[in-house]
Structure formats: C-alpha cells, structure tokens
Write a structure and sequence with these properties.
By secondary structure, the chain is of the alpha+beta class. 22% of the residues lie in helices and 36% in strands. The chain has a single domain, classed as Gcn5-related N-acetyltransferase (GNAT) (Aminopeptidase).
C-alpha cells in the first residue's frame, strides 16, 4: 500500500499498533493509582526469516515519570524477555537531540553504529536518527 502523505502526528489505533509489534516483549509501567508511567515493546525489523532475531525497540516514558528510573526498568525487562524469545539484536533509532534516550540505551549496552541522515520527515522537516544496537551476549553467539 502506498501512502501519499503522512502527518506523523497521530497515534495509531490499538489494532494497528498491536499488528505492528511483536506479541511478546510488551511492558507497561503503572503507578500505584494505575496511571501509565511508560511502556516498551518490540517491532520486527523485517519479515525475512534471516532477521527473525532482530527487533526495533520502542520505549516511551511519560513526562511526569521521567528521571525516576522507569525507562531503565522497562528497557531492562525488554532486553531480558527478548533474549528468552531468541532475539539476538535489538536496535533503536533515536533523534540526535534526544540525549536522554541515547544515554538510557547506552547504559543498557547499546552502542551507536551510525547516523541515518534525512531518514524521516516530520511535517516539512527532514530528520536524522542515530542508529543504536545491542547484541545479546546470551543468544546467537554460536
């Protein structure tokens, strides 16, 4: 399906989100009152079987919960669960100015492997992303 334009400022429906993320490795952090503090999930990077152990990381932390370790806990749980499901590489694309997210991922063992120039477009502005990856030390080492 071709899409002529994308505003990129909308949230997908639950069905769209659910279909685009792996059925495992989904976490939600809640506070004592049941409010969502953040979430983390994985998306496949390709439908080709040779990339079956590679996934893209999504981590979201609500502004009210930032700086409280929520992102670190979500990412740690995601990494652990991903290895239990045979994932050998996790990757993340992060806007360069999002230094908090870059530090979060680097603290969890991700390393910067490149910069993708003008890879995305938000409105009329082309955006670069940093490409970070984490190779498992437990899966895919043979």
């Amino acid at each position: 399906m071709l899409v002529a334009a994308c505003s990129c400022f909308w949230a997908p429906s639950w069905g769209e989100w659910n279909r685009s993320h792996l059925p495992h490795c989904r976490f939600v952090a809640l506070d004592g009152a049941g409010q969502v503090l953040g979430w983390a999930a994985l998306s496949p990077v390709s439908s080709r079987c040779v990339y079956g152990g590679v996934a893209e990381v999504s981590v979201y932390v609500s502004p009210d919960a930032q700086g409280r370790g929520v992102g670190r806990q979500l990412l740690a749980a995601l990494i652990s669960e991903s290895e239990q499901h045979g994932m050998w590489t996790l990757q993340a694309g992060i806007f360069p100015e999002n230094t908090t997210s870059v530090r979060l991922h680097e603290g969890a063992g991700f390393r910067q492997v490149g910069r993708r120039e003008r890879i995305g477009k938000m409105g009329n502005q082309w955006r670069d992303t940093l490409l970070l990856e984490r190779r498992s030390s437990a899966v895919g080492i043979d």
